[in-house]
UniProtKB/TrEMBL annotation:
SUPFAM superfamilies: Cysteine proteinases, Zn-dependent exopeptidases. One of its GO terms (biological process) is peptidoglycan catabolic process. Residues 7-140 form the Peptidase C51 domain. The lineage of its organism: Bacteria, Bacillati, Bacillota, Bacilli, Bacillales. Coiled coil: none annotated. One of its GO terms (molecular function) is N-acetylmuramoyl-L-alanine amidase activity. GO terms for cellular component: outer membrane-bounded periplasmic space. This is Amidase.
Amino acid sequence: MTVNKTKAQAIAYMKTLKGKGWDFDGAFGWQCFDLSNMQWNYLTGGKLYGYYAKDIPFENNFNGLATVYKNTPSFLPEEGDIFVMDEKYGEGAGHTGTVWSANLNTFVGLEQNWYGGGRYKTEVAQLVTHTYDMNMYFIRPHYKAKASVVSKVKDKVFKPSTSKTKGKKILIASGHGYNDPGAVANGTNERDFIRKYIAPNVQKYLKQAGHTVDLYGGSKQDQNLYTDTAYGERLGDTKNYGMYWVKQQKYDIVVELHLDAASASATGGHVIISNQWPADKIDKDINNCLKATVGTIRGIDPRNDLLNANVSGRLNINYRLVEMGFITNKKDMNYLKKNYDKFSKELAGAINGKAIGGTSGGSKKAKQTKQTKWNWKGRFTPNTAIKVRTSPSINGKVVSNNVLSFTRVKTIKFNFIVKADGYWWISYTSKGKTYYSAICKITDNKEKVKNEKYWGKLKWNW
């Protein structure tokens, strides 16, 4: 692959993109990545790779094709450069486009989906002015010095070498099954958690991306891929059971999902593949997905001592086993329980090869803020001495060691509740001022106040 256009040709082509919407890969409408790929495809006949836009500088080999510059206070982009913004933009996915003009204070980009209209094809390629960010990258193609007569003629009839994304046939297999629950810890078991919370959601998101997706054992997921493969081997039946049956169905991608188990301190996921074949893009994307979510305990792990991996290697099935974290680690499981839908979407995106659904480039990554206050009123009658504080915190100033003697009432009417410092607090007014008292420790796994054991009797509403 070479850059076979001059800079003048590249800029002229870039200007033809303005005012129209471009869907290079045929998926999720007019994304920012599509526009940069239109430009790159025109220059080279190839395409840019990356799970997200932010990955472009790192997931492509630009040797001999372009120079990648990281922004500095003195760097000045040039017209036609491809710019890439980091994860602060696009809700973590980054953003990209081409440079229309620039000075040392701002630059103007030609781009799509900055305002979020790309997925629904309501936002065409347009000019947007940006200030600089230290983590921006600019990719400057090594243009051809002079255009040939042939290339000038081709410019008149150029059509991008794009193709609609063709859906894959995918199998998602939840680990264990039948009477085998898998590992058990932290209030759940491997078999049931994956079947209820992860596999169906991964299937849902992959279907949204246009793939045909089956769950092993059907919608009930009432089979065990390992047990079925072993049964087929015992019978000498290499067509009808487990991985041998999978081979007959001609799946393009097979993903088996598990939760690891070890000491309580072990944490993070990893991807297991057959040692017969090197890791492919799907394996690498899933590994990156794990890094960004539960973390990883090790890199991609080629194995020759696992039945399904060995059979997949012999039969040339595109298979991997994904350990999604440790069921024996409280942090891993708390993350998966609280974020199972988000995690499933990220995992589906890794299998898909790009994020599912797209994001608005102009939407900076939101800081994760958890609700800590609820405007729920009620009555609380303590059955023990509880401190009165000026703020809902264990560090709040104590004005009394007993709320009953302080307020001189048996039942306290509170105005709202607060979650802080591992406790639930009520807020009430006494003597014209606002005070707080803890009513219980937070012990419920889902941190729901109505599931807690209070230090007294609580009734909601006045």
